Amino acid sequence: MRTNESAENYLETILILSKIKPVVRGVDIAAETGYKKSSVSVAMKHLREGGHIEVSPEGFITLTKEGLEIAEMIYERHNLISRWLIELGVDPVIATEDACRVEHVISKETFAALKRYIAENKN
User: Fold this and answer.
1) Where are the beta strands (DSSP E) in the chain?
2) What is the pLDDT of residues 43-83, one digit of tens each?
3) pLDDT at res. 122
4) Does residue 71 contact residue 63 with C-beta atoms inside 8 Å?
């Protein structure tokens, strides 16, 4: 299940969009990310070839089981880390930006420890 940061960001974006839209298309991803449609198209080709997404004949994009697992992992990391940083007093914009970077490089072990620590130390 090896992916790079860019692929993880796309998968996370597809997950988020799928929660608020009935269908996800490349144009939706481009609008959400600010990337050109051609760049999104190339990325979707790579994700499809990697078995992370499926694209219907109508152009609707859905996550495969493997793609969904990666997207949910990144999304959970992003939410937990950004909320934690905000609770520590970091400006929400900076916390979100930092979480976007950290979510891709933090190890499973460190994230699990952080998650445990936050759960044990809730007020």
Assistant:
1) 53-55, 61-63
2) 999 999 999 999 999 999 999 999 999 999 999 999 999 99
3) 79
4) yes
Phi, psi of 36 (to 5 degrees): -70, 150
Question: Which of 62, 84, 81, 85 shows the shortest CA–CA distance to 73?
Answer: 81
Neighbouring CB atoms inside 10 A of 110's CB total 11
> Which amino acid appears at position 49 of this protein?
E
pLDDT band (50, 70, 90) for residue 1 = very low
Domains of the chain: 5-65 (1.10.10.10), 70-120 (1.10.60.10)
Structure tokens at 44: 């979707």
The DSSP element (H or E) to which 33 belongs, if any, is helix 26-33
